[in-house]
Amino acid sequence: MKERTKKLISMMLVLVLATALTACGGKQETKETQSGEVNDKESTPKGVAYEDEEIYMNALGDFYDIYEEALEAETVSERYALMAAAEAKFLESGAAFPLYTSGASYLMTRLAYRTGGFSLWSGECVDYTRLYITNEIIKKEDYEHMKELWQELVGTGTYTETVKKYLQDQGYTFKDSYNNVFDELGKTWDIHAATGSLDSKFIAPTCEGLYSYDDEGTLLPMLAESYEVSDDELTYTFKIREGVIWSDSQGRKVADLTADDWVAAAQHMADTLSSDTEDFSGRVAGYTEYMNGETTDFSTVGIKAPDEHTLVFTLLEPCPYFMSVVRGFVPMSRSYYTSQGGVFGTAEYEEASVSGSYNYGIDQDHIAYCGPYLCTNVTDKNSVTYSANPDYWNYDNMTIKTINWTYDDASDVTRTYTNFINGITTSFPLKTAHIETAKSDGNFDKYVTISDTGTNTFLLWCNLHRETFANVADGAAASTKTDEQKEVTFAALQNQHFRLALSHSIDRATYNSQALGEDLKYVCLRNSFVPATFVMLEEDTTIEVDGKSADYKAGTYYGEIVQAQLDADGYDVKVWDDEAKSGDGFDGWYNPDKAAEELKLAVEELAQAGIEVTKENPIIIDYPHVAYNENGNNQAYVLKTSIESALGDLVVFNLIGCNNAEEVRNVDFNTQNGSEHNCDVGGMGSVGADYGDPESYLNAIKPYGDGYATPKMGLW
Fold it and tell me: What's the Rg (C-alpha) of the chain?
């Protein structure tokens, strides 16, 4: 293997930081960058923790340097190639371990294939208004035939009606309700301040964007009727649909929809520092400057409403994928927002949100609705119910008129199966605990198919700056480590070799088999962060990384470039299979011998920094896990067994059981920032794409509080 250059943290920094963590548990703020220069960002509105920046740059500085270079690329192909090279540096850091993608599981369903919308970066969409749901469970052969129909008809505009007729001819009948289960409510009903998929899941039916994808991946006009792009590709002008109204949760009109409601939404997103600001920051003129407080005048931003039904975006430079970014941008009624105590301006918003007079988004009764559904009931640990909005502009064409979410904490795997059979859920991905049941009652051969792989990537994250050792919210998942043991773990997780040792020691296929069964354990394995076939180069491209040039031909897939950079850097990892033209379906990381080699190097470097790792003083990795169902328990024990088997008695993978879904979420989801993440390795969750560019994934790991996944690494 080639010699690798590493940014190893110094002995003094390790010892000082470890002591600081156990002694005071706080993060010190600074306005200096790693180089000592003043950061003129101010530096982020959230404040910069010096330790966080130092730790991030030590682990991910190579990634971030190339990522920023990619953002300045002159061509789309150069951008893609540089982003692939940047991802290679991220994978080399060992800061997170790709495990699997969504989908590729045994499935029983009543949902017609890809109705509700589809796009390459979002996968199957959930536009409830266009779902076709049958009363009967769809037979395996009929579901497979729908897949064939989609491949045959995509691009013709005829798939939806064809599949509807096919199902009717096979004797299926359609229902107008969608049913599913939930185990926790979101934290806000403000879509522009939502922090993740849990919030968005409940708010999404109440609102609508400018455009949406149909079942064949073609953009359809929604709240915008049309759009035009200027010759220089810097101006996008949308004609907003007339006659649309805002209603309250009781269906009473509160305002007319106007183009200015999108301007209000864009400013509110910037004021709340929502992760959705990534859609416009660096793309729309003036938006970044407003976010960073360089101006408080939002009229300087390139999002304007020259009249009630015209919305204009002015870009900094051409963005060929901008429609995939902006199509789902939803408005916010300016007048209703202010009537609920809402104000504009970052400082003003922060003050109002703690004043007691700010009510916007506190529940479903304190938002305005312009989307297809009104939320008529929310009862915690019971149900959430929606009914069709009678004032929705496309009401007559809605296929689904009610949405019902029923509480189920998933602790009883038998109940989750019977819930589907009895129609309480629309679709049901089978876990190993259900397979034998489905076989014994005849449902497996009759109904079970294999779902498509998804675009979301699930990763395990290393907590590089752990400060919390029991859940902040409930005190659960408490660590039993001593202060000295915490210092050893902290130092080890700063070491690239140790992080890679962990990654190479995980038997991903066996981990997957606990949920999906032996037959499917490889199908959804993913070896990269961005799906390997997500984009390809449009033209021959040359990039320079680490002082070396690399040439790539037009038609080269993103994953091929990631692999080429890993090879050039001397990392023995497989993320691309040239024969299969895929980065999924195999385990390119699991290598116990390599894990042992990396651990040996890590122990040597830690010793140089004054940290002795022995049998008597092992590295203890706390891993809070699902302990309330069989699959969660089994998967946790696979991690423990494979890691400890590969790394010997120098590493203890300490399983800490969580007794319910809320305790699990309180480990690293229901947290305010990275310092509240209560694990050494964890943060299981997916990162997906909202638009057709690798940036949609990679921006999740940006520093300075700008990346929504960096808190999973204990940062910001």
Answer: 25
Reported for 57-61, long-range contacts at CB under 8 A and 24+ positions apart, including other chains, are: 57/7, 57/703, 58/7, 58/8, 58/9, 58/494, 59/7, 59/93, 59/95, 59/464, 59/494, 59/496, 59/499, 59/713, 60/89, 60/90, 60/93, 60/95, 60/701, 60/703, 61/7, 61/34
pLDDT digits (tens, 9 = 90+) for 537-588: 999 999 999 999 999 999 999 999 999 999 999 999 999 999 999 999 999 9
Residue 662 DSSP class = H
- 297 closest CA partner among 257, 333, 270, 261: 270
Q: Which residues of 453-484 are buried (b: 16+ CB within 10 A; e: fewer)?
A: bbbbbbbbbbbbbbbbbbbebeebbebebeee
Beta strands 402-407 and 177-182, pairing class: parallel
Instruction: State how far Cα 13 lies from the chain centre.
Output: 32
Provide the edge-to-edge strand list for the sheet that holds 310-314: 224-229, 235-240, 310-314, 303-307
- CA–CA dist 62, 40 (Å, integer): 22
Query: Percent helix, strand and coil across the chain, each rounded to 5?
Result: 40, 20, 40
Tokens of 35: 């180089």
E-state strands within 82-153: 96-103, 106-109, 118-119, 123-124, 133-134
**5 pLDDT more than 90:** no
pLDDT reported for residue 50? 54
Q: What is this structure's pTM?
A: 0.79
CA 573 to mean position of chain CA atoms: 24
Contacts of 430 (CB under 8 A, 6+ apart): 105, 106, 107, 108, 417, 438, 448
Buried b (16+ CB within 10 A) or exposed e, 160-192: beebbeebeeeebebbebbbbbbbbbbebbbbb
Secondary structure class of 483 (helix, strand, coil): helix
State how far the Cα of 22 lies from the Cα of 20, in Å rounded to an integer. Answer: 6
Per residue in 282-305, pLDDT (tens digit) is: 899 999 999 999 999 999 999 999
Please say whether the dihedral angle defined by the alpha carbons of residues 58, 63, 68 and 69, taken in this order, is positive or negative: positive
Strand partners, 386: 375, 403
Residue 20 clears pLDDT 70, i.e. is over it: no
* Residue 687, H or E segment: strand 681-687
Residue 482: both structure tokens together? 């001593």
Hey, is 275 helix, strand or coil? helix
Q: What six digits make up the tokens of 571?
A: 């990392």
User: d(Cα 280, Cα 272) in Å, to the nearest integer?
Assistant: 14
Sequential DSSP letters for 319-369: -TTHHHHHTTPPP--HHHHHHTT---SHHHHHHHHTTS---TTSSGGGS-B
Which residues of 55-105 form beta strands (DSSP E)? 96-103
Per-residue CA distances from 144 to 149, 151, 164 (Å): 9, 11, 14
- 120 pLDDT more than 90: no
* Alpha carbon distance 575, 88 (integer Å): 10
Tokens, residue 53: 């920046």
Question: Which residues are registered as beta bridge partners of 253?
Answer: 247
CA 8 to centroid of chain Cα atoms: 29
Encoding tokens for residue 589? 């990381």
The Cα–Cα gap between 17 and 15 comes to 6
